[in-house]
Amino acid sequence: MTTGYPGTPGTHMIVLPGGGYAEHAAHEAEPVASWLGEIGVQASVFRYPLNVRYPVPLYALRAEIGRRRAAGARRIGLIGFSAGGHLAGLAALAPAAVPDQTVQFAVLGYAITSMQTETYRPARLILLGEDASPQLRRSASLDALVTPQSPPFFVWHTAEDPYVPPEHTYRFASALAASGVPHAVHVFAHGPHSLGLAHGAGEAAIWTTLASAWIHEQAAPPG
User: Fold this and answer.
1) What gap in Å lies between CA 204 and CA 187, rounded to an integer?
2) Residue 145 has pLDDT above 90, yes or no
3) Are 161 and 191 in contact (CB under 8 A)?
4) What mean pLDDT do residues 139-164 have?
5) What percentage of the chain exceeds 70 in pLDDT?
6) Comparing C-alpha atoms, which of 65, 91, 203 is closest to residue 153?
7) What is each CA distance from 187 to 29, 68, 135, 170, in whole angstroms?
């Protein structure tokens, strides 16, 4: 298939489906990896551990990043949705990653970004437990982990999302801007949660076109 984009040798994207840390949403898994392949980006799905406490999913993802890098990937990108977006953000932002487990860029779709709000409480209870301390909740909140050294992010959401309100994206985008981290943010007026590739979803369907150009910009070898 002709994509209009050059290939991205040396870059590998890991797809992280959502599901509230309780399941893996199928439409946010292989279909997303297939789309990435169609635009010339090597990709694979990683089904991270479910119904376990933090930081087990993060450590599992870091190990997968290390495996992909050992297999020859020079640049690792993550693309995650909802809870998978939260995990992608943790892997890109949390301190103490060794060099071969670092992330060069990340795409987050309607992601849970804060464990300090009361929204989408079920995922927080699975990951952190009922009695999580304020310190623990902050340590798992993406907006609290951003530094000027954080990698670039592409973030999208819908204003109507009833499960993970766009507040999550607004908080995270404000933190990225405050630290001068390169980012693109798109909040579409209409659409429910869990859109995946958003085929036939009105204006939100354009997110893949916008993300394609951004991903290729990030995947290009540093000049």
Assistant:
1) 8
2) yes
3) yes
4) 97
5) 96
6) 91
7) 22, 31, 29, 9
